[in-house]
Amino acid sequence: MSFDNLETLYRQVIMDHYKNPRNRGTLEGDDSLTIDMNNPTCGDSIHLQMKIEDGKVADAKFEGEGCSISMSSASMMTQAIKGKTVEEALEMSKMFSDMVQGKEIDADEIELGDIVALQGVSKFPARIKCATLAWKAMEKGVQEDQKEE
């Protein structure tokens, strides 16, 4: 597959997650972690809810407003971390952060799925915060949950 075709495919994946977000909404009940974060630079905001049970992310949903990069990243992230252990979710977050900053990653180590579509963000440093907003919210939520235990 040529580079142009790959970029087109990645663009389509990003737009699909933006127009048809997975896990958009709120979790029922009051036993979920709730994290609100925003990117004051561009106005993106996210309201992330996660349910962590037995050390695993049992469910995750988000609401928010922002650019296609920010909202598609939130959609991809919630999809990717469901069913993962907290440690796996944090490792995915580190790998994602490295990827969008243009660092070499070992994609065989953790299955990233649609998330690789966002690797082109590394060419646009101003968009890195957009792409990582949901991931930073997830990290913050996990850290708060671990403090409460």
From TrEMBL:
Gene Ontology biological process terms, A to Z: iron-sulfur cluster assembly
Gene Ontology MF annotations: iron ion binding; iron-sulfur cluster binding
Domain NIF system FeS cluster assembly NifU N-terminal: 10-130
Transmembrane annotation, as ranges: none
Domain of life: Bacteria
A Pfam entry, by short name: NifU_N
SUPFAM superfamilies: SufE/NifU
NCBIfam families: SUF_scaf_2
Family: Belongs to the NifU family.
Protein name: Nitrogen fixation NifU-like protein
